[in-house]
């Protein structure tokens, strides 16, 4: 019924196509053979297989793979809500 818009249709309208750069991914997971461009990405991914969670909440002990997630989680305990709506003033603990 309706024609689907494709990237080639966008180019016909004068919209320039972005060139994709191919990034080499030399770091390969030995468990599932997923490929990564950086060693750090492989290390974090490997934690999925081992169950390792090196960063823990100092209040409840919940574990996380990345330190920034602990900081977000800690807001649950402190009640901090740093994000406010400019229209109605609703406050939230994370940006959406």
TrEMBL record:
SMART domains: ZnF_C2H2 (SM00355). It comes from the Eukaryota. It is found in: Nucleus. The lineage of its organism: Eukaryota, Metazoa, Ecdysozoa, Arthropoda, Crustacea. Keywords: Metal-binding, Nucleus, Repeat, Transcription, Transcription regulation, Zinc, Zinc-finger. GO terms for molecular function: chromatin binding; DNA-binding transcription factor activity, RNA polymerase II-specific; RNA polymerase II transcription regulatory region sequence-specific DNA binding; zinc ion binding. This is Zinc finger protein. InterPro entries: C2H2-ZF_Transcription_Reg (IPR050717), Znf_C2H2_sf (IPR036236), Znf_C2H2_type (IPR013087). GO terms for cellular component: nucleus. Signal peptide: none annotated. Residues 27-54, 55-82 form the C2H2-type domain. Its main location: nucleus.
